Amino acid sequence: MKNFEKVMISLSIVLFVGCGKFDDKIDCDKDAKRTIQEINISSLSSTTNIPPSTTIPSSISISSVFISDVNGWTIEGDAQGVEGVIPNFSQTNGVENSGYIYAKDDASGGTWYFIAPDKYSGDLSKFIDGKLEFYLKQESNIKKQFEDNDIIIEGLLGEKIVYNYELYPTKEWTKYEIDFNVDSLWIDENNDTASNEKIESILSNITKIMIRGEFEDGPDIGGLDEFRLFKN
After folding, report:
1. 60-231 belongs to which homologous superfamily?
2. Which of 32, 81, 129, 199 is the most buried (most CB within 10 A)?
3. Which residues are paired to 83 by β-bridges?
């Protein structure tokens, strides 16, 4: 990069507003307002190198917003959708009054989960120190809530990380936002706090992401909307 002792920039801009017609000369109506703005810019630089341009990295994300269908999501466990493992889809009453997916609990024992589609599998290690964000709601009596693993991310050879909420979803859309790092207190398959290395290892080889859909011991309906992984 060359040194420049002095850089002088001079710029003049003339703006004509409200003029009628441009021929060999400018004809403006008597009543038309004409604004002429002249800008002169002069700049002196120091006798230092001009630094190279810096590229600002853009954010990355993968998302499911359920505008017109279930986006490839399925359900697993004692719940029924429109076609067995396919969840129901509603065109309205989502987070932004758009679509969302839901399933009805069979109340036959066990816990059912929303299962993310294939685009959330494989190597997603680029999201380490990023976030997982989504909305849940439940339609139930909310009188017999029970504990279970809330988010399960499985890797190869039975490895997994699990996250459990402090508060369960209500009858209104409840937002969850979890960081992909040790500070969020993910636990591993041995119920130990997952290290950053463990989290990154799982994100490098994801085979399944499971989002818990039921929280009531008894009949209930669970809804999911605006699911995404992102990193700024």
Report:
1. Galactose-binding lectin (2.60.120.430)
2. 199
3. 86
